[in-house]
Model the fold of this input.
Amino acid sequence: MELRITNLSKRYSNGVQALDDISLTIPAGMFGLLGPNGAGKSTLMRTIATLQDADSGNAHIDNIDIRTHKDDVRRILGYLPQDFGLYPKVSAYDLLDHFAVLKGIDNRKERKEVVDALLHQTNLYTVKNKHVGGFSGGMRQRFGIAQALIGNPKLIIVDEPTAGLDPEERVRFHNLLADIGSDKIVILSTHIVEDVSDLCNNMAVINRGKVILTGQPLALIDTIQGKIWKRFIEKNELPQFQENFQVISSRLTSGRTLIHVYADQQPDAGFAPAHGNLEDVYFSAMAYLLDGQVRPASSDDHRTALTA
Ligand code: ADP
Done:
């Protein structure tokens, strides 16, 4: 199974170029679509989910053309949108049952089996009679996955599912996603690098509507080894370091400012080698420091990377 996205572009009526010639091949397994807010992730997800049309370009799921065969796509699609709204005064069971009806599971007995199984899978069975409006953020997102999995979809899209979850719920949610199965395509759109490093065997970084990096997380991490350097500095020294070095990230660690710099060699004696991780890959990509990246026409990307 494969999703092939070819030259998708979309400009909104306000002039924002949300997708700018996106091409991607997404195989079965977990695929991480990583990018900052406003990168175009939701636009791309909604387009693949057949909820909106691109201006040009297309996508195919195996032989299904998403532009001309929307119903066929919807039959194999499970979608958890970014702004998944819930009817507050309905129980989890009844709401899931309702979604199952909408998905075309007409047989009552079959529907009960499906709903019960999904409530167990998402660890919501014990609260199945509670109103979803009273659910915590994590429970809501698990419910969102339950509804996305109705009908055993082959293509599952989850858009920013972990934003706002506490660490424990995030781990729980990760475990749930990891169990979904490697024979399906699961696209996880996120601005959180950890989501991708924990879960995905393939990924792409998008920024300003363009794919700027794609590959396997571990292979991408390999490409930056020996090129990431760290140093503690005073907070007020940051502008000066940004001037002199390719600072890809700066963060407070134990009340001190730790910077990571991208360089082929040790920038100076004050820097120590850092073991590059996926976050360094992401920030290096956002600063257009990696080979083979497509840079948008105009940009102040470096700043974007630092504040992402
Ligand atoms: P992401 O999901 O990565 O945050 P989006 O796809 O939501 O990115 O947005 C990409 C860009 O398109 C942003 O600049 C956003 O403001 C703009 N945008 C998104 N939806 C609309 C819309 N319906 N009308 C106009 N602009 C939009």
Residues 50 and 71 are 9 Å apart (CA to CA). The longest strand covers residues 17-27. The mean pLDDT is 92.
